[in-house]
């Protein structure tokens, strides 16, 4: 399958030495890619270089086979961009925003998404709530039916009902062949809608995995309720971390083989035991240990 | 490009309208005051004649008087007040055009659209010039109908010729401001650097007129080339000055466009 996005050895350093170093990843067409990392890890810098707001000091960025800098104007015709801070004109109404976007993209200002999100486009941005500003930003990103959506925190400020609506819109968009790069702090959201994830740490990619591989990673969360306190520290298991302990209830994170732990637990009286696959948040934290 | 020009003009229409009305009101005040000044013209002219030559030169109070509407306005309006108004308008427009949008993060709205940075810059340049043209027409040409309204003799040609010089001057200031705006990410820095440079040039012009030993400093000031008083009195267009202002405008516009298309913008 052809790549919608391909970053190869992209480096962009700020004068203070921070930035991104040798970042590489690909996103297949028609997939949703979750871009994860804490504040300051380099997600926004990578997105800025993709959007040609900044030129990388090294490396190449190809989007739909076109160079992100040389073919910037052509590419922006097929990219819908939702920035983290919304970048709207406070004294303008939603209609005026849609009208400007439509004229610059030479498309009809007709906007179904705004209707679907129950967004009143006649109101000025300064009068909109945070959630409604976010809805407007999303509606604007979809003006002209772009082939690729680059979204920084798309559901921030939205209540759970509208978050769900957004997920449905994004899934529908994906089913029409659209690709999404989604930067988010909301790990359950990423786990729910993304096909693959990239994790960036201090400007470097530490993992690019499909969501299935993440799920298949041999990390388990083991919750044990024992009769009396379980002396887990006596087990001497290097692949086990205690994440929670309260009297006779202990929650453990186990990397790799579960059997040594199970053998140790078998020597004690267990009232209840639950073993689950680690979720994305646990795995994300694993990379940040 | 047209949608961006329209956007710029629509965003600034209220402040521009207010500014134009203010400029016309100021001119109107001068027109209303003119009969009183004209009645005292002889004594006022004598008073000006008694000023030191250097001071008259520095503030361009030579060759005119208070007898005609043209010479009166050249003293009262064009020697200081009009350039000041034009500079404030040009710098505020230039500052908000790029640095202001970077500061408010709204520049990302334009940069994420399928339009090149060069076209965005040209759109900002043109929309700013439209504002300046409207201001020049209102502020320089409004005295003609106002003078007719009050029955004062007026020479429209003098005002028309003066408006060309004023337009070239304001264009140079706006283009220099937009160049600064393309470099800066904050308006305050732009106002500090460009505004400070213009103030320095004004001081140079005044000082060079007062102190003969510093006479050559006048050539480093754009105010030396902006002699609207002379234009209003004689209706002679200073081609050299106009070409200089146009040259500054073109050089700054090209440099600004190159810088804006190449710079990193953190939005």
Describe the 3D structure:
The complex is a heterodimer of chains A (289) and B (267). Chain A is of the alpha/beta class and 289 residues long. Chain A has 10 helices and 14 strands. Chain A has helices spanning 43-50, 72-78, 94-105, 112-116, 130-141, 160-175, 187-193, 211-216, 259-266, 280-287, and strands spanning 3-13, 19-28, 32-36, 58-63, 66-67, 79-82, 148-152, 179-183, 196-201, 204-210, 219-226, 240-246, 249-255, 270-277. The mean pLDDT of chain A is 88. The radius of gyration of chain B is 20 Å and the shape is globular. The interface between A and B is medium-sized, with 26 and 22 residues.
Strand/helix succession of chain A:
EEEHEEHEHHHEHEHEEHEEEHEH
β-strand amount of chain A = 25-35%
- How many extended strands of chain B? 0
Could you give the order of the helices and strands of chain B? HHHHHHHHHHHHHH
Provide the residue-averaged pLDDT of chain A: 88
Largest interface, per-chain counts? A-B, 26 and 22 residues
Main beta-sheet strand count, sense and barrel state of chain A:
6 strands, mixed
Residues in helix, % of chain A: 25-40%
**Helix-strand category of chain B:** mainly alpha
Spatial strand order of the main sheet of chain A? 6-7-8-3-9-10
Strand content of chain B: under 5%
**Global Rg of chain B:** 20 Å
Tell me, rounded to a whole number, the average pLDDT of chain B. Answer: 89
Number of helices of chain B: 14
Net shape of chain B:
globular
Radius of gyration of chain A: 23 Å
Which stretches of chain B are low in confidence, meaning pLDDT under 50 for 5 or more residues running?
A: none
User: What is the β-strand count of chain A?
Assistant: 14
Overall structural class of chain A, as computed from helix and strand content, comes to alpha/beta
Low-confidence stretches of chain A: none
What's the total helix number of chain A? 10
